[in-house]
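Lecture notes, continued. The same structure-token format from the folding unit now serves as the input rather than the output. Read the line below as a description of shape only.
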């Protein structure tokens, strides 16, 4: 059983599946872009997610949807800091900062964030330095290329094998930078430089990622591979998202990153109950 020390919060992993609620304060994120740009609405939505059962809130100020253009450090900070400053005193769960910019991570932590979620997998040495300096958990995600180009032609020889090798190498590099291994979470990066087939292969093989001996996070919520399979627009992908959540929970994933916290919580409670009953009877 693992623990993440998120500042003053100590979060146990392994006994039950944890939920990370998504709070995008962007105009162009693929699922909820433009919905939470207003500071008051963003804070209210985060509180609603906590009340619905979220264990973390993950705030992001730069869209990482396929084809998204990067924004400046100044613009990202302009979006997130007022929300963080208003939100932190009002929630009783850790707030994660979803960014690939070390300066944004540092400013967010100083404003009260207690976890780093980096879609670039801590490849920037300065980001690893920030995580090590503040001794906070870091989510290390895999992405082929960058959001602007990641979906143009993603190619792998063996996607699961290549991801496992990536994590072995990047985790060791993170540890050598001063980050405690116990504070690292791995995220296979569903939808980040992967085809529909790649995403399904990752989901089908989730148990292989347990060989890393680290907590696993996945974020399948409302993504295009679900839309492609079900032929549905983003606003109608909840059932498909919940199906992937159920599968991931059964496969032992530790944290699920989602937009719809309430329905996800219900699914997780049922799967965890079934799994616990099975373990108790054996």
């Amino acid at each position: 059983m693992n623990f993440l020390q998120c500042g003053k919060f100590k979060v146990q992993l392994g006994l039950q599946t944890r939920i990370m609620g998504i709070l995008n304060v962007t105009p162009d994120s693929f699922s909820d872009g433009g919905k939470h740009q207003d500071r008051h609405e963003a804070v209210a939505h985060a509180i609603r997610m906590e009340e619905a059962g979220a264990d973390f809130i993950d705030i992001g100020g730069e869209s990482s949807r396929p084809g998204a253009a990067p924004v400046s450090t100044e613009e990202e900070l302009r979006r997130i800091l007022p929300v963080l400053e208003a939100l932190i005193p009002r929630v009783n769960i850790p707030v994660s900062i979803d960014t690939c910019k070390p300066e944004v991570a540092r400013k967010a932590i100083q404003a009260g964030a207690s976890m780093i979620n980096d879609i670039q997998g801590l490849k920037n040495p300065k980001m690893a330095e920030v995580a090590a300096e503040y001794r906070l958990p870091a989510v290390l995600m895999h992405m082929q290329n960058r959001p602007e180009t990641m979906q143009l032609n993603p190619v792998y020889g063996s996607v699961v094998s290549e991801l496992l090798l990536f994590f072995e190498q990047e985790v060791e590099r993170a540890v050598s930078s001063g980050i405690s291994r116990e504070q690292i979470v791995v995220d296979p990066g569903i939808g980040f430089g992967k085809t529909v087939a790649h995403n399904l292969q990752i989901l089908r093989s989730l148990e292989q990622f347990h060989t890393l001996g680290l907590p696993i996070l996945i974020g399948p919520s409302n993504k295009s591979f679900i839309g492609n399979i079900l032929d549905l627009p983003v606003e109608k992908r909840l059932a498909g998202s919940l199906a992937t959540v159920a599968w991931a929970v059964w496969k032992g994933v530790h944290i699920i990153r989602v937009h719809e916290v309430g329905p996800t919580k219900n699914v997780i409670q049922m799967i965890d109950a079934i799994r616990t009953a099975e373990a108790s009877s054996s």
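Point for the exam: The longest helix spans residues 261-281.
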